[in-house]
Fold this sequence. Notes:
Layout: E1 9-13, E2 17-22, E3 34-39, H1 41-51, E4 55-62, H2 66-76, E5 81-87, E6 93-98, E7 107-111, H3 127-130, E8 136-140, H4 142-145, H5 148-163, E9 167-171, H6 181-191, E10 197-201, H7 204-209, H8 225-239, E11 243-251, E12 257-264, E13 269-271, E14 275-277, H9 286-299, H10 304-318, H11 330-337
Parallel strand pairs: 1-4, 1-8, 2-6, 4-5, 8-9, 9-10, 10-11
Antiparallel strand pairs: 2-3, 6-7, 11-12, 12-13, 12-14
Helix pairs in contact: 1-9, 9-10, 10-11
Amino acid sequence: MQQINTKKKAVFFGELMMRLSTKRHERIIQAREFDVLYSGAEANLGISLVNYGLDSYMVSSVPDNAVGQACLNYMRQFGLNMDYVKKNGFRLGIYYVETGASQRPSTFLYNRKGSSITELKVGDFNWDEIFQDKHWFHFTGITPALADSVAEITKEACIAAKKRGLMVSADLNFRKKLWSAEKAKQVMTDLMQYVDVLFTNEEEAEVVFGIKARGTDVHSGKLDERGYEDVARQLQEKFKLEYVSITLRESVSASVNKWSGMVFDGNEFYNSRKYHIDNIIDRIGGGDAFSASVIYGLLTEQDMQDTVEFAAAASCLKHTIHGDFNLVSFDEVLALMKGDASGRIQR
């Protein structure tokens, strides 16, 4: 894997949010203070690509107030271009994170109804201008789940991206607290006609599209990788995808996971090594770190086996970082990819 200087640029469409996390693994009902961060599934990918040296552009909206400005300031410090983020509406979506430990899982509580992005409508963005000189467009299943109007904008963006010849990727990212499996299947099936690269995990393909990994129980901590190859092949054939990428998380507990990933290009399966993560600091954004790294490999035309190994190493490191962003450099990921997992102090 090589870090390649390229002028290729990626665009991301999705919601920006405030994240309020309990401290010291407290429960929300006992918390008297919260850690404040800003994030968004699509922004997570954009910032990873910035760390690898690519230009990334966010398309979204925030309220025209101090909270919206704080979100913009926070994102800009990590190099994400915010020129296409509108200011409208009255509130920024919030999500609360109760950080689990050992056998107690982490939980989310959303407070995003009526957020700024849900007040947008088709025609609010000049997609031809946004996609000029760009090469990749990415969205997640979270975005169209926010409101029917946002789903319509997502489709509008996909049509414009394909018209300009961009590669389009989607992360299925099913959130049962945002919409039903039936609604997700209806909307995402329609959007899949524009998608070239699909990212998903061990549960979502079954919940949304009814495609099940054989011999797998996600609650038992055991996975059958051959089952996922079958899932990837079914997805690729059903939606005529160029690539399918699946992350494989074996949850021993909230604090201990086994983590790996795979990419299928329609002909061959590329499986990464498996990482045993003994002390998870923050698993939020782990899948996004993997997806961003696969996108980097595809944009820079890297060897596919190297790409999946790089992606697995990057997402492994993300689990050691508080917050949603994978704030690691290309060289740090490369070191782990090459086998340096000692954790020794770097002087």
